[in-house]
Amino acid sequence: xxxxxxxxxxxxxxxxxxxxxxxxxxxxxxxxxxxxxxxxxxxxxxxxxxxxxxxxxxxxxxxxxxxxxxxxxxxxxxxxxxxxxxxxxxxxxxxxxxxxxxxxxxxxxxxxxxxxxxxxxxxxxxxxxxxxxxxxxxxxxxxxxxxxxxxxxxxxxxxxxxxxxxxxxxxxxxxxxxxxxxxxxxxxxxxxxxxxxxxxxxxxxxxxxxxxxxxxxxxxxxxxxxxxxxxxxxxxxxxxxxxxxxxxxxxxxxxxxxxxxxxxxxxxxxxxxxxxxxxxxxxxxxxxxxxxxxxxxxxxxxxxxxxxxxxxxxxxxxxxxxxxxxxxxxxxxxxxxxxxxxxxxxxxxxxxxxxxxxxxxxxxxxxxxxxxxxxxxxxxxxxxxxxxxxxxxxxxxxxxxxxxxxxxxxxxxxxxxxxxxxxxxxxxxxxxxxxxxxxxxxxxxxxxxxxxxxxxxxxxxxxxxxxxxxxxxxxxxxxxxxxxxxxxxxxxxxxxxxxxxxxxxxxxxxxxxxxxxxxxxxxxxxxxxxxxx
Length: 533
Ligand code: F6P
Prior knowledge:
Layout: H1 10-13, H2 15-25, H3 30-36, H4 40-43, E1 45-48, E2 51-54, H5 62-74, H6 77-85, E3 112-113, E4 116-117, H7 119-138, E5 150-154, H8 161-169, E6 178-182, H9 187-194, E7 202-207, H10 214-231, E8 239-243, H11 246-251, E9 259-261, H12 278-284, H13 286-305, H14 312-326, E10 331-336, H15 344-356, E11 374-377, H16 388-393, E12 400-405, H17 412-431, E13 452-457, H18 462-483, H19 494-503, H20 518-532
Parallel strand pairs: 5-6, 5-7, 7-8, 8-9, 10-11, 10-12, 12-13
Antiparallel strand pairs: 1-2, 2-13, 3-4
Helix pairs in contact: 2-5, 7-12, 8-12, 8-15, 12-13, 13-18, 14-18, 15-18
The chain binds 6-O-phosphono-beta-D-fructofuranose.
């Protein structure tokens, strides 16, 4: 079955048709499409479980959308989706299933990998996490100094970005200890947090799928020394581990009852639904964590059951390919109008760019198509006062996703300002301002026709956040299928990691190791000189 997905991307066969659609639409402004079609908003928006996705402000009409959908069908998008959900090894370069969806599977149905139902293990691990989280939250888990007041998650990449972003976004739901996140090998990342903590009431979570990641292991060792200095041989009890490498967690000195496992079919950037979500669970509690899983499950059901033309992640993915490959727009922005979601763009960067930043097809051939876009973003309204100038009037067109809650923390005045600003921006981007409207001043002209999607929901709850994250996960999957790449490996991070072990010895004074090129050698010499000078 998998081999049938190794063919060249169907998108290549559709380039002529899609370019013809682009050519046709190049002469039409989106604002004119609104003027001539009073149903445009209804026609180009989709709702699911309290989340509204409005994609009507795009360079798209019924005809171009239908060509995109034909292309998705020719790409066997839904066949590959079904293969993913049913546990086929679609991560071909690592020979692994891709089953983060099993971690939030609330159907009661089995999910088989290599002839074994994985659901009993998933549920057992979730129950173990809930017992531990409840004990930490209630104060039943005490080590050397009473109730745990602070939890520090030490991890990087997928073992940091998702839990950090979700914990911060759901701060309103935090009714447990304070949560902190440490990722970088720069000592300030850990020390600036430890400075304010009491070792006796601090719990460290070492989150690492591999339990070999250099930054995480260095931070974990340093945290252990800090704890040992304060509580002596009991330090180990202040640590728990989240990993698939149970041998390494044991070697680090963390007992099995405080080690939470997961499986090789959970990718790092998709791991928040597994044990890697423990910090979030401790923050918001097992019941709200279950709501979070439920939101993602709702998105999964929508992705599985909605027809392509009413399927949010499918439309998101098609729009992305439409702009990347047909219109030639290399960047995609995401703007949550919500301060607590300030880490959402960073989370999305890893999800999208580590998944789809690839140049080789599943067939092992070099791709002829551009793949993953550059993702960036900032919370609204801050971004408006920084880089929106370029988005409105720059020469690079940047399709934007706007994320907006109707209610939330704070008074109505603040909320209304966020809402009005967000709507003003999307309208300005789409409508623009003509030379005539600008009183003949070319500097005040906005060409408009700049694409955006708007996600609207009542409040950022665990359920809504889970759904939003899963929509983006599936969007990334859709695009990977259309481009014919494997979205679930990350070989591009390997070379730098390998070279790290050759460069580090060259920092030692008096070493005979020589760098492979004069730039690296010159920099090393300068570094040694500056260190000693
Ligand atoms: O270097 C990239 C990466 O491998 C990511 O894919 C992963 O999320 C991150 O490092 C952390 O890996 P680990 O959880 O194994 O420490």
